[in-house]
Amino acid sequence: MDESLYYKRTIVKETISSAELGEDRSLRIYLPPGYNELLSYPVIYCQDGEDFFNFGRIATTMNRLIYDENIEPAIIVGVDVDKSVRTSEYAPEGSRFAAYCRFFARELVPYLEHHYPVRADLNERMIAGDSLGATVSLHLALDYPSLFCKVISLSGAFFQSTRDRIAQEDDLSRLHVSMVIGLDETEVHTDRGTFDFVEANRITKQLLEARSCLVNYEEKPGKHIWGFWQNELPWMLKQFLK
Questions:
Q1: Residue 178 pairs with which residues in a beta bridge?
Q2: Is residue 204 within 8 Å of 156, Cβ to Cβ?
Q3: Beta-carbon neighbour count of residue 203 at 10 Å?
Q4: In whole angstroms, what is the distance from residue 122 CA to residue 3 CA?
């Protein structure tokens, strides 16, 4: 395979106006090789859109999977975030969290399904995030069961409020969560304090599995950085793509 093909990609930049957030939000939309508006595609929604594309190299990863492993082509939607308000939007206790979740479910998903040939099927939507991005992704899957059932979690920040939310559920057999955590993440410094992400993910895995959620869980040497997560994306994407 000519490796230059991996780096040829079509990424459309769009702006969606959100009544829920009271502002515009930038999107990065990857269209797979051979994209055809007459076809339909699975869709992957990513929090921290800029980071997923620039540091996670998700477009290059998807090209490799399509060309080398015959994975079904998918559309990837990266939702950008202003880092100064990221915690308020992604953390369950955040002042903008509820509005952000409504934006995602009520405005973003309908917008994409109106403007792009993404499949409006629960099993054809995936939602992905790193750290707090994984947190809000899991909450969206819990709170909007008709929209999301497949979650990719890169070192999720799954602390007490998220564990309490999971505990409200009796049966999560509809959910499939792919989780990875780095074994060097026992003392992660954040703007909210220092946390043991390894223990948090272990507890969350147990809570999910106790409610019959299908969990693919990996612990590997790695830190709370994109250098670790980038290498884990291929196997995680393959969990959900045919």
A1: 152, 216
A2: yes
A3: 17
A4: 34
Predicted pLDDT at 148? 98
What token pair was written down for 77? Answer: 């939607």
Residues facing 81 on adjacent strands: none
- The model's pTM is 0.96
Q: Give the rounded distance of the alpha carbon of 147 from its chain centre.
A: 14
Burial of 170 (0-12, 13-18, 19+ CB in 10 A): exposed
Q: Express each pLDDT in 216-234 by its tens digit.
A: 999 999 999 999 999 999 9
